[in-house]
Design goal:
Elements: E1 2-6, H1 10-22, E2 26-30, H2 33-39, E3 47-50, H3 59-67, E4 76-80, H4 85-93, E5 98-101, H5 106-120, E6 128-130, E7 133-136, E8 141-144, E9 147-150, H6 153-164, E10 170-171, H7 172-180, H8 188-202, E11 210-215, E12 219-224
Parallel strand pairs: 1-2, 1-3, 3-4, 4-5
Antiparallel strand pairs: 6-7, 7-8, 8-9, 10-12, 11-12
GO biological process, one term: regulation of DNA-templated transcription
Protein name: DNA-binding response OmpR family regulator
Pfam family, one: Trans_reg_C
Length: about 220
Amino acid sequence: MKVFILEDDIDQALLVKHWLEKSGHECQHFVNGRSFIDKLPFEQPDLLVLDWNLPTISGLEILNWVRSSDYSDLPVIFATTRGHDDDLVQALDQGADDYLVKPIKEVELIARANALHRRHNGSAQNALVFEPYNFNSKEDTVDFQGQTVKLTSKEYQLAYYFFNNPDRLIARDYLLEIVWAKSSAITTRTVDTHISRLRKKLNLDGSTGWKLISVYHKGYRLIQI
């Protein structure tokens, strides 16, 4: 896997680069957003490890640029000192696939990077069709009613799991465990935010024959109407 690391702290970048290369990945380091943006037309990575507090162009601005560019499906992991829930939710809302708070651990970074790469390439999931929804695991997209909806990696995992488990009550804590590996940086509020976005993107309000409902103090259930 080819990994681009966008980090202005040289020591931190070298450490992350060492960990990833030790695990067999190819890495390139960028100290600012401009050098990263200039590189992309000539070489595309399989994963971006992104700091938030960068000179000139912030990590969040880079994320927004990526998601609106020709490279919008690039998996992105934030690795940042910003550990507030509001920062986490904002990053995930803007399309980050995962979020790690510094100091990060080698084993967690490698596990999350590998898992994200597998999911992005569709090796962990099979094709899935539940009328009117057609899931594309390679692109993290869902086709329905004549439109193609692009989901973030986490949104896709949630949708895939719900449709594979219709009518089952699924607790928030369980979703944290299977989708986010129960990271200490992730709370049930993050689950709620992703569920809200998923409802809107896939029209899971009953109008398509499927409804994603909240069960107070329990979790969520996807039902077919």
